[in-house]
Amino acid sequence: MDAPDLENGYMINTLESPNRFQTFVEAALVRRGDDGTQTAAYLSSRCRPEGISPDRIFNGLLYTFGILHTDDQQTLLLHMGSSMASRRPFGERRPAQYLHRNPNCNSRVHCPRVEVVELSFDQVLDEMQSERLDRDNRVYMELSWRVGAETVSLYTSCGYTNFPNPDLDHAVMWQQKPNYPRHEHRYLQPIRGPVPYFDGERYQIAFVAAHVTQSGAQRVEFQIRDSISFFSLRPQSGWRGRIAGWLAASPVGRYFSVSEYHRQVTVPATCRFYRYAG
To answer: Is the pLDDT of residue 84 over 60?
Structure first.
């Protein structure tokens, strides 16, 4: 098995600018067409605007962003942190995803494919539950699903991973929590973000979560970044919820929007765990 080298991959950005800067490659998304074509997209580390100065570096601009660069030479700047994203109250909202698509902000990616060691479900679960000091915690996952005539594969680290507590008897869990969603007693649920997502038309930024058992991925969800009314973030029950819902639907609520990870998409993906050799 091979995968993009996320342990050593890096990006050089703003190539035509007097100042260049380097970021790591945090995740890669590869699209493989049924006709044999292939395009990869690479997501940078999260960045914050700043100036090159011995007097003042942070310049007061209140947003964070990531850079997505593709093999076909698209370079997109994407919102990553919380930010206001106003829109016309009676017109089409502007996309919350993109800061801009600047032809003078090109990047160069160094992230070759390298051989990796595939890990079984049992291996990863046993390591998670062992808590050995000498274990290698750098576990990555490959999620693959179909989008039209393409197979899309996301490569990213397991940012944080849910797993069953080995000190508890999970056979009696349903008796203690009768309303808890039922699932297998042995599971892994890695979550990671931000990561790139492709919906068949454009790249977006998202968090991803996968619920995996010994028989494979049972569910894979993306929480995609999109505009949402500020008032929709308020409590949604009782009279406060009714007032918040009314304000969210009003021209004021449609104007005061925030960009947040809230739009859920489920994909029928497969999941493989791996680790970089050496």
So the answer is: no
Between 109 and 250, the more confident residue is 109
What is the amino acid identity at position 77? Answer: L
Distance CA 57, CA 27 (A): 28
Token pair for residue 156?
A: 């990213």
With contact defined as beta carbons under 8 Å apart, do 232 and 246 qualify? no
H-run or E-run covering 254: helix 251-255
Cα separation, 220 vs 51, whole angstroms: 39
Is the separation of the CB atoms in 10 and 31 below 8 Å?
no
Q: What is the pLDDT of residues 139-192, one digit of tens each?
A: 999 999 999 999 999 999 998 999 998 887 777 777 777 777 767 789 999 999
Give bridge partners of residue 83 from the DSSP assignment. 259
Q: Which residues, 6+ apart, have CB-to-CB distance to 168 below 8 Å?
A: none
> Is pLDDT above 80 for 60?
no
Residue 273's closest CA among 163, 170, 149? 163
Q: Which residues fall within 8 angstroms of residue 245, CB to CB, at 6 or more apart?
A: 231, 232, 236
Residue 247 CA to residue 200 CA, distance in Å, equals: 33
pTM (2 decimals)?
0.86
User: In 3D, which of 191, 176, 163, 171 has the Cα closest to residue 271?
Assistant: 191
Q: Residue 213 phi/psi, 5° resolution?
A: -120, -175
Classify the phi-psi angles of 16: left when phi > 0, otherwise alpha if psi is within -120 to 50, otherwise beta.
alpha
Whole-number Å distance between alpha carbons of 261 and 228: 9
Give the SS3 label for residue 132.
Answer: coil
